[in-house]
Amino acid sequence: MSSGTVIAIAIPALVILATVVGFTSLRRRDAQGLGHLSRETRKRDAGTMAAAPVSDEARELEQSVALARLSTEVAVPEPTIPDVWTPPDPEEIGVTRRQFLNRASVTLMTMGLSTFGAANIAFLWPRPTGGFGSKVKIGTISSVNGVIASSSPAVSFSYFSEAQTYLQPYPMDTATQQAAEAVYSGSVLQGIQMGYVALWQKCPHLGCKVPSCATSQWFECPCHGSQYNRVGEKKAGPAPRGMDRFPVIIDGDKVIIDTGSPSQGPPIGTDTTGQGLEGPHCA
Ligand code: FES
C-alpha cells in the first residue's frame, strides 16, 4: 500500500473520529449545564454580592441567629427498651372457642362410637339364661312324664316348643340300652339311660321343621321326604344322618334341655330300637 493511499484513508477517519468526540463532549456539557449557572453568571453574581452594602442591623441579626443556632440543644430521644414477650398463662386464658369446639367434637364422636359399639355387643352377646340356645327348663319330672304318657300310645310324640324339641321316651329294655351304648355316648347316652332322648325339630338335611306322623309313627320331613323312627334314627330320604339331639339334664325334680349344646344325629343305618313302619306315611 502506498503512502498516498494510507493518507487518503487516515484523513477521513480522523475527521470522523474528531466529529464523534466533539459531538459527545457537547452532549455531556449540555447535560451538566442543566440546573447550573454558567461561569459568567456566577462571576457577575459574586461581583454584585461583593458590591452590595451590608447594614449593621443585618449583620447583628445574622450573628444572633448563628449564636441561637449554636446554643440550641438538639433533643436526643431516650433509648427505649422493648418489652420481653412472655406467653400468657393458660389458666388465665381459660378455654378458647377453638378448644371448646374441638373438645366438644371429640366428646360427641366418642359417645356416638361407644353407644354404637355397646349396641353391637349387646346384640351379639349370647343370652345367659332362658330361651332357645340355652338350657331350657321344660318342667318337672312328673309333668314331663305326664305329657309323654298323655301322648302315648296314640301319638307317641311329645313336643316342647320352648326348646324346639321332641322329648321322646327311650325303651329301657336291656337289649335296646345295650344297642344304644354301642352308638351313643356322653350326655346323650346319659339321657337315654334315664329313659329320654331330646330330638331337635330341625331336619339335618336342609333345616325344615320335621313333623311327626301319627300313622307311620315316624318323623317325616315334608320338604324332601327324609324319614326317621321315633328316636330320630334315619330310615329313608336324602338326610345325611339321624336327627340331631340335645343333652337332657335332670336337676332335682326339674327336666332341662340344653339347647346350646346340640349333638349330631347317629349315622345312616343306626337302628337301636328296631321300630318298623306302623302305618301309612304322611309325606
Ligand atoms: S329338609 Fe328335610 S328332607 Fe330335606
Task: Explain the overall architecture.
- The protein is of the alpha+beta class.
- The protein has a domain at 135-258: Rieske Iron-sulfur Protein (3-layer Sandwich), CATH 2.102.10.
- 42% of the residues lie in helices and 14% in strands.
- The chain has helices at residues 3-33, 39-51, 56-71, 90-93, 97-124, 141-150, 174-183, 186-193, and strands spanning 135-140, 159-160, 165-169, 196-200, 212-213, 218-220, 227-228, 234-236, 245-246, 248-251, 254-258.
- A four-stranded antiparallel β-sheet has the order 2-3-4-9.
- The longest helix is centred in the first third of the chain and has 31 residues, at 3-33.
- FE2/S2 (inorganic) cluster (FES) binds at residues 203, 205-206, 208, 221, 223-226, 237-239.
